[in-house]
Amino acid sequence: MAATAPLDDPRFGLARTARLPGPLRLDGGAFLAPVEIAYETYGTLAADGGNAILVCHALTGDQHLASTHPRTGKPGWWTRMVGPGRPIDPARDFVICANVLGSCMGSSGPASIDPTTGAPYAMRFPVITLRDMVRAQAMLVDHLGIGRLRAVVGGSMGGMQVLEWAATFPDRVASAVVIASAPRHSAQNIAFHEVGRQAIMADPSWRGGNYYEHDDPPAAGLAVARMAAHITYLSEAGLTEKFGRRLQKREAKSFGFDADFQVESYLRHQGISFVDRFDANSYLYITRAMDYFDLAEEHGGLLANAFKGTKTRFCVVSFDTDWLYPTSESRAIVHALNAAGAQVSFVELSSPFGHDSFLLESPALEAVIDGFLKAGQT
């Protein structure tokens, strides 16, 4: 068993960047080289490499899984699930979390320097897919000397990456945990993303994506995109309970308008705080990659084909108030896994928090993941 890595141990949240020579061939036909992947590790890799768990983050997440975020100063985004005594425990597991390809926290993306021009790629960065992100993660796993992952775990877009891992590298994934996710985007999902993209591109500061040298990013557009998306992460019941139609003091202002309702102020805060840690072009690229994702289409139009012959164990979890990726999407995944003869457990959990439930306090989710991962130990 790996040695314990407490919170004050340097092995807990060890931040690194791997510069991989590549080239990485992308689904769009382009080649990317070199490929930089920013990541954090927690715990110690066992001698046989058998205790490695890869955690995949969602759209606006990053590699700061359970360590203090360097830009916001806030705790990592999944400290409820990862840490001493948690379901994913660095005392037992070697945990990896990598910033996805196309993002803005150190991995290759639109803000990276194009070696052929010496300037940021901006919109010259090649189009990417979720499968490209997973291939880049596989390059990182190879770099770390890990042949087979004990588990791949993720929620939302992270869950899509888990599905892609299981389909693309089935022999490298012992267990897969897919939380609050879907095998492809609906027209409604794509529509919400397009509203956000148009908000960014309508901001005069976007400049066709060439805003890096001006030190004037399209903050207003990105903030509106975040506000629109954040609504989809919540539930109507949760918003009503938290805010209702309560008014607030008139002096609170943002973008030149009074925020009369508490819910308005909340959304504006979400938007403004987001622009301090995220890149607008990355938002364009990653949302588009999510919209392109269609696991069935990648496998002849039948979702079950993606898992044909798999030996991977699956755990699929949904939440009853999640209307972004409702339980029907999880059931579609489960039905495909059943058709492929895969080992799969499924549970719908009750929560008032909508899609974001997997990021918030959920003893039931912790119990499910803890039990599933422990059941897969050899």
TrEMBL record:
Annotated catalysed reactions: L-homoserine + acetyl-CoA = O-acetyl-L-homoserine + CoA
Residues reported in the UniProt entry to bind substrate: R226, D356
Localisation: Cytoplasm
Pathway it works in: Amino-acid biosynthesis; L-methionine biosynthesis via de novo pathway; O-acetyl-L-homoserine from L-homoserine: step 1/1
InterPro entries linked: AB_hydrolase_1 (IPR000073), AB_hydrolase_fold (IPR029058), HAT_MetX-like (IPR008220)
UniProt entry keywords in alphabetical sequence: Acyltransferase, Amino-acid biosynthesis, Cytoplasm, Methionine biosynthesis, Transferase
EC number: 2.3.1.31
Catalytic site: S156 (nucleophile), D322, H355
Source domain of life: Bacteria
One term of GO molecular function: homoserine O-acetyltransferase activity
Record-linked Gene3D superfamilies: 1.10.1740.110, alpha/beta hydrolase
Keyword Acyltransferase among record annotations: yes
Keyword Cytoplasm found: yes
Subunit-structure text: Homodimer.
Protein name: Homoserine O-acetyltransferase
Organism: Sphingomonas naphthae
